[in-house]
Write a structure and sequence with these properties.
By secondary structure, the chain is mainly alpha-helical. Helix 1 packs parallel to helix 3 and helix 2 crosses helix 5. The longest helix has 14 residues. The termini are far apart.
Length: 154
């Protein structure tokens, strides 16, 4: 039987964080030792990224300063940074957009937007639909049907 005192719940979070190397680093930048959890994605995040996730209305809790429920801990233990990366960074390439540094919040914000909101690098055959983001034109490229719009009609 799992204990449900506040200390026991936090101990479970810390044990899960220590159990996987990826949970010891922020899920969205290169910061080491995240102290917050984004409950929306069950990921461990740093102070900078936690504030940015809140801008997107993602649910955030501080590991040691929040009240936790056993259900929340169960959900966190089913997730983690590695599982989130498998889904949201499945087709990510650092050459496309390098993992940001927490000292550059605007770059972190853009990375979080592309990763979770735009789902730019999401897995192809998942719950995100059958169409790949790579099949869509980039925002800075003209659409195929609009590419000749400036040419005179004959």
């Amino acid at each position: 039987m799992k204990k449900n005192t506040e200390k026991d719940l936090i101990d479970r979070i810390r044990a899960f964080q220590r159990s996987d190397k990826s949970n010891k680093k922020c899920a969205d930048c290169i910061e080491i030792g995240p102290t917050y959890i984004c409950l929306t994605f069950s990921t461990f995040v740093c102070t900078t990224c936690c504030g940015l996730h809140r801008e997107f209305s993602h649910k955030i809790k501080g590991i040691s300063v929040s009240k936790w429920t056993p259900e929340e801990i169960d959900e966190i233990e089913r997730g983690g940074n590695a599982k989130a990366a498998e889904k949201y960074l499945a087709r990510w390439d650092a050459r496309d957009f390098a993992e940001p540094d927490s000292s550059d919040p605007s770059r972190c914000r853009e990375f979080i937007r592309m990763k979770y909101v735009d789902k730019r690098w999401c897995e192809r055959d998942g719950n995100e639909g059958s169409r790949s983001r790579r099949d869509e034109p980039r925002r800075d490229e003209p659409r195929r049907d609009e590419s000749r719009r400036d040419e005179p009609r004959r």
